[in-house]
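In full, the data.
>
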Amino acid sequence: MYAESPYEFLTRLIGKEIIDSGWLEIDQERISLFSRCTGDDQWIHTDPDAASRGPFGAPVAQGFLILALINYFRSKTFYAPEGIRMSINYGTNKVRFLNPVVTGDRIKDRAVLLNIQQRPDGTLLMTSRHTIEIESKEKPACIAEVLNLLIPSGHNR
């Protein structure tokens, strides 16, 4: 009996949506924790009183927090095909922050598989476009082209 390889399986998904996550509310605690981790303590993120009088009317999430949440959404929604042991972040080709996410906004990730490349060492390089939507807003928060290295079972990496 013929067993489809992970590469063959993923090739059939090129151009198709592979992630449509549920909504995640962005609260001040998450923004503040990210500020503490990264040292990004600009008042538009960390001072709700000052931010309420600022250009966005409320504290806003850091762009890199929104980008980092792509991994959260992937871990909750994308299931690698049988034969893949793990996925490793490999980088981004392009990232754009298009619309601020303010405290209380709910966001979700919709991702389309753009390409899958089989590498000489047996790993697979997956390229996907992630659109981070904000509930009730037309313009997304972020669009990012993300690379993941898929490691097959039995690979020594």
In short: The helical segments are 6-11, 28-38, 43-46, 48-52, 63-77. Residues 6-25+65-152 form a domain with the Thiol Ester Dehydrase; Chain A fold (CATH 3.10.129.10).
